[in-house]
Amino acid sequence: MTNIVPLNSDSHQNICITESKDYRRFANEQLIPVVFHEFHHLASEFPLVFVKNTETGQFIPVAMMGVKQGLNLYSQDTNWPASVNPRGFNNAPLSLVKTSQDNDNVLVCIDTSSPLVTTTTEGSHPLFDSQKEQTDYLKKRTQALLEMAEFNEQTNNVCQLLASKNLFTSKQLTVKLTQSEQPIKIDGVYVIDEQALNQLSDEEFLSLKANGLLPLIYAHLVSLQQISRLIELQNQYDLSH
To answer: What is the structure's pLDDT at 102?
Structure first.
């Protein structure tokens, strides 16, 4: 259960936040939303693919962290096993909430039920000082949230651009595991169609290059090789559970 409320210097003056690499709250999430700005370092560990919002038609980039639905192979233990992780993992227990659909004003909110929230100052970071002013730590965390919100908006715009050029194609992933007789089929996944990319006009292709999108596309395509890593991790998981 969560209890997300607007952050308030009166109510939360004595609140502190602890830093943790315990990401077990994502243990049941096979697909983790990411932004294009982190494709380059995430591609070395995770397959980066796209899913489609059935209501809006919007494509969303995600990092695959498992081959079985409801199982994140990286978040089963207290210690994060990889050298990289999505930026969004470090937002908790803070978040941004729009005050209205009609403007871009936001409130910083906090999940007071999060285990990262404490009143103990040792080993943690206060959010407000004795004068009820924001600490440097809170200012830094707020700035990170605002940057992530901007990255999300830019990612949505890039996805819309790629979709407008018909560069997404659906791909069914078939995974054969050592402990399973029947292969696992993963549906609802989209990738960049290399053939469609190569068939773009020179003008369209150079436009992608000018906007810095080609390295992101290639990072996505290279990341698909990490599916074999997920298969191996799943085989290891099956042997120990």
So the answer is: 74
Instruction: Judge whether residue 38 has pLDDT over 80.
Output: yes
Q: Does residue 158 form part of some domain? A: no
| Three-state DSSP state, 158 | helix
| pLDDT at residue number 134 | 96
| Chosen domain end from 124, 151, 178 | 151
Q: Quote the CA–CA distance of 31 and 226 in Å, as a whole number.
A: 14
| Of the candidates 76, 82, 24, the residue with the CA atom closest to the CA atom of residue 241 | 76
Residues 17 and 30 in one domain: no
pLDDT, position 155:
97
The pTM of this model reads 0.92
Domain, as residue range, for 205: 24-84+165-241
Query: Which distant-in-sequence residues (6+ apart) come within 8 Å of 40 by Cβ?
Result: 215, 216, 219
Contacts with 204 (C-beta within 8 Å, 6 or more apart), sequence order: 165
Return the pLDDT at 181: 77
Predicted local distance difference test score (pLDDT) of residue 105: 86
Query: Which position has the token pair 């549906």?
Result: 187
Count of structural domains, the chain? 2
Check whether residue 185 and residue 212 sit in a common domain.
Answer: yes
Which residues fall within 8 angstroms of residue 234, CB to CB, at 6 or more apart?
A: 66, 67, 68, 73, 175, 177
Cα distances from 65 to residues 7, 11, 28, 106, 147, in angstroms, run: 32, 37, 10, 31, 24
Say if residue 206 is in the same domain as residue 226. yes
SS3 category, 101: coil
Same domain, 13 and 92: yes
